[in-house]
Design goal:
Order of helices and strands: EHEEEEHEEHHHEE
Number of strands: 9
Structural class: alpha+beta
Radius of gyration: 17 Å
Largest sheet: 9 strands, antiparallel
Length: about 180
């Protein structure tokens, strides 16, 4: 089962895609974003987009909920859904989250291989992480995802773990841009 990084990833600012080379106010001070900030964003984000590859090479992109737990990003799907079929063929995937404003925000891309979670103890930890993050959406009978924990336990929903191999952060602060790459 994937585990989070034993050490902090290295962070690199890619000046080609950052404002560091652009003569505008604030651009000279652009630096790589610390991994701790990226983790805070992963913990807070409610919606992620998972990208998988179909057997014929076409991409499949769909929104999911996900929980960051112990250095790993967890998401689920039905066992017969397209993303589950794709991951059984090719475990490589990317999970993306962020905003859609041009001049403000922070977007993240997490790349890695999805591994199915079957360990009962880990399953319970991840269920608790989802419940803590999404609260009544999962715990209330009126919640959109009520009963998801039982679906994980029964196999009606498949839980996947993605330990990052590479991650990217795209920051926008009043028109000043940063592009950070983390290598694990």
């Amino acid at each position: 089962m994937p585990t989070g990084p034993a050490q902090q990833p290295t962070a690199e600012l890619d000046a080609r895609y950052s404002s560091a080379l652009t003569p505008r106010p604030g651009a000279a001070g652009v630096t790589a974003t610390e991994w701790a900030e990226a983790q805070r964003q992963l913990e807070a984000a409610e919606i992620f987009w998972v990208s998988t590859v179909r057997p014929d090479g076409r991409l499949h992109v769909t929104p999911v909920i996900a929980a960051w737990h112990d250095g790993v990003l967890y998401f689920s799907t039905g066992p017969g859904e397209q993303k589950a079929k794709n991951l059984s063929h090719d475990a490589h995937c990317a999970l993306t989250t962020g905003g859609n404003a041009l001049t403000e925000g922070f977007d993240l891309v997490i790349e890695g291989k999805a591994e199915r979670v079957t360990d009962p103890a880990l399953l319970e930890e991840v269920i608790a992480a989802h419940e803590a993050k999404y609260g009544p959406h999962i715990t209330s009978p009126e919640g959109t995802f009520h009963g998801i924990g039982d679906s994980f336990r029964s196999g009606d929903a498949v839980l996947f773990a993605v330990a990052p191999t590479t991650a990217y952060g795209f920051g926008r602060d009043n028109g000043v841009y940063s592009h950070t790459r983390w290598v694990f």
